[in-house]
């Protein structure tokens, strides 16, 4: 009987922590939708329900999913010492993750894809840009989640580590974007990838989405080899950057090999770049993400 009472007591605590985390998570997910409208300077309800703006909907969906990914990093692990600390931790990590996702979107706009006005193009119902925007948010969230799981505690050092990891992530994503631009130009008589995306070439957006998400997964592999310590934070984050770039190159090489096998006999440049074959681009995206998932699982 005493054992049963103790078990009920434990479950009550567990349910209380669960209720706190889920309530805050739903609140933050709802906030993300309205924050997306504010950042685009539009009424989200108007865009989604009256204007039927699919591009905006895809962009918001990417942001909501990204926040959900970040929140899994905030709630994974042991419960806090009290209900208040659990709520504070969830709000702190979740709220900060929400901010970083939005900051990452700005960096993606101004640095990685600096020739595109993504906000304006999404309002103009450009599905291609909506997909790219969603993929960028998800890629950023994957790395933020990895850093959240990597760090320990809730203090200033933790947030410095999260911010630094975020900067490392954005650096790698910008690098991979530049490399993909050069590859596209080489394969298409020096045409501009960003210009092609702005014209609504959906197949290119699907392929690019797979590339940035697989890159994010590759960068997270560093968390399995580096031990978090506030005293060696700079060294560890430098390790994240070097390891992330190395893993990205390995994933790119293995993905190229896998694509030749999976899509044997298909000219990818002709099908995706020139004929805008969404089906082939989707297989490319799936292959890129699959290779990154397999490799990161092996590293773990």
TrEMBL record:
Its main location: membrane. The keyword Transport does not apply. It comes from Colwellia asteriadis. It is a multi-pass membrane protein. Pfam families: DUF350 (PF03994). It is found in: Cell membrane. Belongs to the UPF0719 family. The chain crosses the membrane at residues 14-34, 54-75, 87-107, 127-150, 156-176, 208-227, 233-257, 278-299. Keywords: Cell membrane, Membrane, Transmembrane, Transmembrane helix. This is DUF350 domain-containing protein.
């Amino acid at each position: 009987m005493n054992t049963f009472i103790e078990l009920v007591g434990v479950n009550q605590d567990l349910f209380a922590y669960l209720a706190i985390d889920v309530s805050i998570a739903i609140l933050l997910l709802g906030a993300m939708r309205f924050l997306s409208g504010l950042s685009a300077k539009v009424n989200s309800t108007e865009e989604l329900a009256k204007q039927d703006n699919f591009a905006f909907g895809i962009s918001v969906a990417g942001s909501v999913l990204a926040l959900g990914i970040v929140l899994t990093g905030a709630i994974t692990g042991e419960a806090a010492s009290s209900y208040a600390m659990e709520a504070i931790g969830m709000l702190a990590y979740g709220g900060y993750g929400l901010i970083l996702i939005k900051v990452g979107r700005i960096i993606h706009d101004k640095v990685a894809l600096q020739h595109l006005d993504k906000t304006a193009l999404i309002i103009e119902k450009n599905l291609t840009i909506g997909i790219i925007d969603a993929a960028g948010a998800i890629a950023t969230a994957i790395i933020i989640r990895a850093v959240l799981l990597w760090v320990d505690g809730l203090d200033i050092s933790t947030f410095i580590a999260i911010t630094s990891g975020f900067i490392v992530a954005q650096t790698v994503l910008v690098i991979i974007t530049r490399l993909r631009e050069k590859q596209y130009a080489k394969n298409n008589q020096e045409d501009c990838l960003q210009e092609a995306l702005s014209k609504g070439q959906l197949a290119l957006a699907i392929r690019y989405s797979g590339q940035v998400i697989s890159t994010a997964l590759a960068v997270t592999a560093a968390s399995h080899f580096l031990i978090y310590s506030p005293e060696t934070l700079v060294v560890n984050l430098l390790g994240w950057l070097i390891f992330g770039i190395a893993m990205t190159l390995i994933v790119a090489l293995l993905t190229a090999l896998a694509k030749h096998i999976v899509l044997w006999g298909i000219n990818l440049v002709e099908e995706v770049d020139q004929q805008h074959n969404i089906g082939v681009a989707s297989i490319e995206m799936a292959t890129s993400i699959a290779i990154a998932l397999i490799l990161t699982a092996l590293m773990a």
